[in-house]
Amino acid sequence: MNKHFLGDTTVLTGRSLRHIARSPDTIITTAIMPIAFMLLFVYVFGGAIQTGSDKYVNYLLPGILLITIASGISYTAFRLFLDLQGGIFERFQSMPIARSSVLWAHVLTSLVANLISLVVVVLVALLMGFRSGAGVLGWLAVAGILVLFTLALTWIAVIPGLTAKSVDGASAFAYPLIFLPFISSAFVPTDTMPGPVRAFAEHQPVTSIVNAVRDLFTQQPVDSDIWTALAWCVGILVVAYLFANVSYRRKIS
Amino acid sequence: MQGLEKSFKQLKVLRGVDIDVARGSIFALLGSNGAGKTTVVKILSTLLKADTGTARVNGFDVVTQAADVRESISLTGQFAAVDEILSGRENLVLVARLRHLEDPGTIADDLLRRFSLTEAGSRRVATYSGGMRRRLDIAMSLIGSPPVVFLDEPTTGLDPEARLEVWQAVKELAQGGTTVLLTTQYLDEAEQLADRIAILHEGRIIVNGTLDELKQLLPPAEVEYVEKQPTLEDVFLTLVGARTDSARTDGEQR
Ligand SMILES: Nc1ncnc2c1ncn2[C@@H]1O[C@H](COP(=O)(O)OP(=O)(O)O)[C@@H](O)[C@H]1O
Ligand SMILES: [Mg+2]
């Protein structure tokens, strides 16, 4: 590894964090859609949805958190795309810096921005009556899963960020990710879904992640869901990381 | 650089380019739009790889010793590569940090002064005029005093005043011993600045020499007496008036 990797990554991460600090609207926009879904589902549909939980918002929050991440990472693709467009990317590439720092800075910035959005969403959920008896360890475990999920989706976002031809192309890839939780156990239990839909819902990554987070929040034993969830997160992370680096190498050579 | 060739798909952009640039000189690569000037600069600054041919910068091969080349150069690309959201000073500090230099703040302040950007230094670059952006862009390239500087069409799109300022900065660079490779579409720019000029046309260098050598390629001019008329540029600059620091920065706050 290049001897400047840590220093350069720190400097470049500081730069992108400054971008976020100067346009905090990206944090707000990231949080607004999941909050709107939460309001809609809790106060409009929630009364009619049978989940077996005492409060629907308790059932709903894990899925909402994943939607927050999915909408947040589209900004990562967007910021990366703008760097490429603006020529500053080429300036960095022509300088004696550790080349992978350029990507890592965007990835770490994505992590920080998403964590802030997640905190905002959780605070709103608390106002809406969300309660969890989970202790410090439980919350740490939830945070760990969400960090992994964010990293996995961020590395996916790097690919369109590097290869897109237009701003819209750079962020459009996030829409399917945002809607994936709708066909999962995030909003309603899967057992009322018709056969093929149910089969899809039960075997896609969101369901296991949502179930694991939900079990942690309600202090249920997490059983096999947590391993499935971790396997999905790590698997997506590794594959996306490899593909992102292939795109990057293609871009810079 | 020797025998550089580069194609994008079927388009043969460079068909064998050979250039030597002497240390500490200003070399102008002259060519019309689409001639391949940017492509040459990108190959030399390790952003693109040539299909065939070799190039050395400051003694280092651009492919096998790319990291050493990047230590030796700085690139001012065709379009100003500045961070719009950061202030001018923050841009300079950023580059100084990435070049791993001591005391980035002092370096930034010195350059802001040198390029008459001190007053604008704390403003976001998004509020800068084209000329200010270009000056900042060039200032960013000078950080760390790399021995070789590439300037890709540094004055395209600038107003005449800003253009003269850039020329001044380039001359100072060469006086300080820096090797400058400059690309341009403007004949007068090459004439004003360059020790040697090469013309890139249809993927090849068709001529390469000093200004005098190039002039001798044409039949000797007949001596004619003409009354010297002021050029439009002279008129413009006279009317716009004294180019003091404050007038310049205020005038450019659009
Ligand atoms: N990445 C690219 N892909 C395809 N064609 C390109 C690419 N970059 C440049 N070209 C083409 O190569 C030619 C030379 O481009 P360029 O080096 O930018 O010329 P100049 O800088 O002299 O105006 C142009 O015809 C341009 O369209
Ligand atoms: Mg060009």
List the helices and strands and how they pair.
The complex is a heterodimer of chains A (253) and B (254).
Chain A: H1 5-22, H2 25-45, H3 56-86, H4 88-93, H5 101-127, H6 136-163, H7 167-172, H8 174-179, H9 195-203, H10 205-217, H11 225-252
Chain B: E1 2-8, E2 11-17, E3 26-30, H1 37-44, E4 52-54, E5 56-57, E6 60-61, H2 66-72, E7 73-76, H3 88-98, H4 104-114, H5 130-142, E8 148-152, H6 160-175, E9 179-184, H7 187-193, E10 196-201, E11 204-209, H8 211-216, H9 232-240, H10 245-251
Parallel strand pairs in B: 3-9, 3-10, 7-8, 8-9
Antiparallel strand pairs in B: 1-2, 1-4, 5-6, 10-11
Output the number of helix runs of chain A: 11
Ligand identities: adenosine-5'-diphosphate, magnesium ion
Largest interface: A-B, 23 and 29 residues
CATH architecture of chain B, by name, is 3-Layer(aba) Sandwich
Q: Quickly count the helices of chain B.
A: 10
Oligomer: heterodimer
The CATH topology name of chain B reads Rossmann fold
- Into how many domains do the coordinates of chain A divide? 1
Distance between the termini of chain A: 19 Å
Taking the sheet with the most strands of chain A, its summary is: none
Write a concise keyword list for the protein shown above.
heterodimer; A: 253 residues; mainly alpha; elongated; B: alpha/beta; 6-stranded mixed beta sheet; 37% helix; globular; binds adenosine-5'-diphosphate; binds magnesium ion; antibiotic resistance (chain A); ABC-type transporter activity (chain A); Nod_factor_ABC_transporter (chain A)
